[in-house]
């Protein structure tokens, strides 16, 4: 079950939630059921599922409010469920970040088909994200091992590209030297090798980052390096 898709079912109708959970468990999913909007938000942030089945009407808050808070951090797929036939609800759901919408009651096999369709889209989105990373005026293509900045090709060595790609994949998070050594060399940092620092310096120069006060690849003293995703605008 470790590779099974993770499904979060947000539904306050206990009988319906159990029916959905049982059906998806038999279909090979790993499921979790919560009945409160607050619990759904916490679960999405702490243990993000592959997909969220989100009921529009919940006892503590409405599904649109839940979706709005989920979308602050959760990038996965959300399928909203509602007994309401209102077009306004559907429009609000899509505008807030829902990926699909079903009206209750819905046949389990139809619901499964919609969920599987969204998961396929998620897989395609993830592959596209891995193949090409785009930050403002910069593009990093992992298929062609190429980097463009302001529509100009930046010539990097293989090691420089690998380092930049690693930093960019973890944009917004600090990577320690040990993190970098482990990912790129499969070794732990010995505390004295300055190869990473030298490559960072060369990357900054090639990417037009200020060596004295870098804004794009920052040094976080005592911790490591930070790729700043918002610093690549034209």
Give the gist of this structure.
This protein has 234 residues and is an alpha/beta fold. It is built from 8 helices and 12 strands. It folds into 2 domains: 6-128, Response regulator (Rossmann fold, 3-Layer(aba) Sandwich), CATH 3.40.50; 136-231, Winged helix-like DNA-binding domain superfamily/Winged helix DNA-binding domain (Arc Repressor Mutant, subunit A, Orthogonal Bundle), CATH 1.10.10.
- Helix percent reads 40-55%
Number of helices: 8
Number of strands: 12
Q: Would you state the CATH class of the largest domain?
A: Alpha Beta
- The CATH homologous superfamily name of the largest domain equals Response regulator
CATH architecture of the largest domain: 3-Layer(aba) Sandwich
Element pattern in H and E: EHEHEHEHEHEEEEHEHHEE
What would you note in describing this structure?
With 234 residues, this protein is α/β, with parallel strands linked by helices. The protein has two domains: 6-128, 3-Layer(aba) Sandwich (Rossmann fold), CATH 3.40.50.2300; 136-231, Arc Repressor Mutant, subunit A (Orthogonal Bundle), CATH 1.10.10.10. It has helices at residues 14-26, 37-46, 63-70, 87-96, 108-131, 158-169, 177-185, 195-206, and strands spanning 6-10, 30-34, 51-55, 77-82, 100-103, 132-135, 138-141, 146-149, 152-154, 174-175, 217-220, 224-227. The strands form three sheets. The chain has a five-stranded parallel sheet, with helices on both faces. A four-stranded antiparallel sheet has the order 6-7-8-9. Helix 1 (14-26) links the parallel strand 1 and strand 2 (30-34). Helix 2 runs parallel beside helix 3, helix 3 runs parallel beside helix 4 (87-96) and helix 6 packs across helix 8 (195-206). The longest helix is centred in the middle third of the chain and has 24 residues, at 108-131.
């Amino acid at each position: 079950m470790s590779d099974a898709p993770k499904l979060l079912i947000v539904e306050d109708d206990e009988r319906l939630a159990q029916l959905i959970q049982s059906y998806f468990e038999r279909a090979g999913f790993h499921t979790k059921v919560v009945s409160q909007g607050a619990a759904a938000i916490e679960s999405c942030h702490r243990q993000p599922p592959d997909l969220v089945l989100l009921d529009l009407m919940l006892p503590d808050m409405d599904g649109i409010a839940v979706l709005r808070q989920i979308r602050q951090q959760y990038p996965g797929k959300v399928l909203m469920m509602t007994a309401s036939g209102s077009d306004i609800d559907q429009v609000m759901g899509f505008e807030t970040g829902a990926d699909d919408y079903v009206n209750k009651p819905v046949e389990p096999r139809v619901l499964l088909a919609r969920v599987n369709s969204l998961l396929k889209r998620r897989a395609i989105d993830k592959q596209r994200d891995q193949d090409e990373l785009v930050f403002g005026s910069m593009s990093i293509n992992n298929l062609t091992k190429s980097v463009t900045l302001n529509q100009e090709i930046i010539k990097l060595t293989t090691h420089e590209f690998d380092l930049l790609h690693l930093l960019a994949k973890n944009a917004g998070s600090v990577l320690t030297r040990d993190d970098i050594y482990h990912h790129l060399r499969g070794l732990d940092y010995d505390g004295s090798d300055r190869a990473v620092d030298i490559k960072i310096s060369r990357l900054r120069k090639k990417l037009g980052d200020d060596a004295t006060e870098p804004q794009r690849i920052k040094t976080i003293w005592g911790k490591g390096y930070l790729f700043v995703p918002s610093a690549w605008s034209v």
